Amino acid sequence: MASAALEVENLEVRFGPVRAVRSLRFSLERGEAVALIGPNGAGKSTTLLTIMGAAQSQGGDIRFNGQSILGLAPEAISRLGIALVPEGRRIFSDFSVEENLRLGFLGRRTADGLEEDLAWVHSLFPIVEEFGSRPAGQLSGGQQQQLAIARALVARPEVLLLDEPSLGLAPTVVDGLFDALVEIRERGVTILIVEQRAELAVEFADRSLVMRNGEIALTLSGDDPFDSDRMTTAYFGS
Amino acid sequence: MTEFIQSLVDGVALGSLYALAALGIGLVFGVMRLVNFAYGELITAAAYTLLLTKDLPVGLRIILALAVAVALSLIMEFIFRPLRVATPATMLVTTFAISFMLQNVAVLVFGTRGESMNFLPDLNKAFEIGDIRIRWITVVSIVAGAGLLSATAYVLNRTDIGLQMRAAAADFRTARLLGVKATRVIVFAFALSGVLAAVVAMMLAVQRPLATPSFGFLVVIPALVGVVVGGLDRLLPATIGGFLIGFATVIISDLLPSESRVFLNSALFGLVIVVLLVRPNGLFIQGAASGERL
Q: Is the Cβ pair A155, B175 closer than 8 Å?
């Protein structure tokens, strides 16, 4: 049996006495889109940062294509084929849009197909090409988010992690963003998205995991209708 | 008027030297948030290299001075490696310790009495334009300063490793998440700062021919003040700050009547205190600096 793209097994992350992530276990099949939702402080962002090697885990394992990536440096993990669109976009605002994009090339395992990937990213987010020489700080919030996703995509990742891409954006902008995410998924990129706008995320994803207090409180398959009662229970406990 | 122009030229020359030292400190601070007090000992090491190679051809002496400063800088980087996750205070104290240790090693090996390096003494000869006397080393300092500052700017702004260094300096964690190799950019910054230290040592060696254990330390203190005045967080302001300290030193020293020269440092540091009171983040920095590290 082929291994899953990404497996998280009994993951433990503690910050001092606080157990931010508790025996967390889930996996992403190749090409699957999974949403990680839940209240603030549930450990969603911590989970993403731990997958990227930017937070220390105290137990468990994380496997990418069957190989453990636990303990690797962030730069090593991003070069393996996992890309993160970080919370708050983390654009280099003093750098030009083009320079921001170039930093994304670092994660590529091969220079082959770079032109093709760039063309695709430009068609997905035309402003990235159009405003290439502008300082990235001059872009609007939505445009910066597009740039952050474009920067992750030019690394040609197998797995794309997104941390709250809709944060602080107007609803119409968010709709456009999710349209782009659908296209990215159709390209075969495996997606794990952390999102506050639960309804939108559940609708987009093949599966949704509701996290609370560092654990998965509820799993929804794509076929499940959005059930606000079950969701409320999962978010706040019964 | 003539005297004033003379002061300006000398000020630019000393400013260039301090700017190079400030840039060397700023490069390392950018990628590691480490103020390397031991930077002066890189300059001292290059100076002693010039002393020990007195009898060799000049070209070889220059290469050896560069090699020694870069090698020592890389050794320092290796020592600081476990401290990357330490608090800034721990890092600072460690660099102090290394600085004092190296100075005392120099005292043990070479003694406190300076010895002449005899490095390109002819550059101290002057030529005249009208009434202004300009020493060749002044010209060399300005040219070397401008050349190296431009070269560094080129590397930072036009090359891939430069882009990665700037990214690491702006947001270290995000840079790493994108694939910037932390160790690689830090090693590169230390190597570059070693080159700058060697050049500072050579320019100084011409004008202050005695190699002493505190040879570099005496340069780094004012350069550091310049870095802080300019703004520690950004390279260009830090470098300009270094330049201004060197420049101001010469101008103030020439303005003060000769019997008041002893107050030079008091006047200079008084000025620094005023600047920091008015602009605590540095002369050219607006808003609060972020110090988030991985």
A: no
Sort strands A190-194 and A159-163 into parallel, antiparallel or unpaired: parallel
What's the total number of domains in chain B? 1
Please tell me which residue of chain B has the smallest CA distance to A52: B177
Kindly report the average pLDDT of chain B as a whole number. Answer: 90
The answer as to whether B226 is a domain residue is: no
| Model confidence pLDDT, tens digit, residues B252-287 | 888 888 888 788 888 878 888 888 888 877 777 655
Confidence of residue A147 (pLDDT cuts 50, 70, 90): very high
Whether residue A103 and residue B166 make contact (CB cut-off 8 A), yes or no, is: no
Asked if the structure places residue B219 within a domain, the reply is no
Q: Does A154 touch chain B (CB under 8 A)?
A: no
| Cα–Cα distance for residue pair A82/B254, rounded to 1 Å | 61
CA of B294 vs chain A CAs: smallest distance (Å) = 7
Predicted ipTM? 0.93
Shortest distance between the Cα of A236 and any Cα of chain B, in A, equals 32
> Is B289 among the domain residues?
no
CB contact under 8 A, A106 and B182: no
Tell whether B85 is covered by a domain: yes
- Kindly report, residue by residue over A23-82, the tens digit of the pLDDT: 999 999 999 999 999 998 899 999 999 999 999 999 999 999 999 999 999 999 999 999
CA A210 to chain centre: 15
Containing structural domain, residue B75: 20-214
Of B164, B170, B176, the CB nearest to A73: B176
Token pair for B254: 């020439």
Nearest CA-CA distance, residue B290 and chain A, Å: 13
